Amino acid sequence: MGDGRFGVYCGCSCLLIIGGGVLCLIIFLNILPFKAIKFHIIDASLTEFYVTNDVVLHYNLAVNISVRNSNKMDRMSYHGIRSNPSCYGRDLSTVSLPSFRQGTKNTTLLHPVFQGQILFKLGGSHLRDFNNDQRDGIYKMDVNLYLTLQVKHAGGDKGVKLPFTVNCGLMRLHLLGSSSSSNNQTRIGGLFKPTRCKANGPPA
């Protein structure tokens, strides 16, 4: 009787171990490919950025974002892509970008342009930072991406769709055409320093 119970316990334990191992393998195969996806801002231009007397910010920012799939076997699909810049504690306009598929060891360029107006009442440290940057003609910007990624394995199987948030910052951009833009070390003459973005998605 005792030996029978021991056998049942051992059998259940083995099933749990095997099931846990299979589950870990599935999670590993679905999460690992996302770690090979890299985002960078490779170019940016700020052609309009001023505040009117009625405290309305007018802005025009264009960026080029590279998306690199370094996987050797897994392809990727990108869906529901939205992007918006933020500065001095305020979010600017959000734009939608087209979905796309990406092959192995492949790079895709995204070209969002943010243009518009927003009420721009600042206070505290944000106002102080803005006034200092306005004096210098150099403005600090973040750019965020919100998207859903799906992996397609070499055998044709598709993984689950997982949400990602990508933060690219902090860029320091001269206002093009201003007196300070002649000393621009981040944009003029192809000297823009690529900004590596941080992707927040599935846990490692």
Summarize the structure.
One of its GO terms (biological process) is defense response to other organism. With 204 residues, the protein is α+β, with helices and mostly antiparallel strands. The protein has two helices and twelve strands.
Keywords:
five-stranded antiparallel beta sheet, seven-stranded antiparallel beta sheet, 21% helix, 2 helices, alpha+beta, 204 residues, 12 strands
What secondary-structure arrangement, pairings included, does this model have?
Elements: H1 2-31, E1 37-51, E2 56-69, E3 75-87, E4 90-91, E5 95-97, E6 100-102, E7 106-110, E8 113-119, H2 124-136, E9 138-152, E10 162-174, E11 195-196, E12 198-200
The chain-level structural class is alpha+beta
Residue share in β-strands? over 45%
Calculate Rg over CA atoms.
Answer: 24 Å
Helix content: 10-25%
Number of strands: 12
User: What is the 3D form?
Assistant: elongated
Largest beta-sheet details: 7 strands, antiparallel
Query: Number of folding domains?
Result: 1
| Number of alpha- plus pi-helical segments | 2
What is the rounded distance between the termini? 45 Å
Order of SSEs, N→C?
A: HEEEEEEEEHEEEE
The low-confidence parts are: 19-28, 179-190
Q: In terms of quaternary structure, what is this?
A: single chain
Mean pLDDT: 81
Subcellular location: Membrane
Organism: Papaver atlanticum
Keywords: Membrane, Transmembrane, Transmembrane helix
Transmembrane segments: 6-32
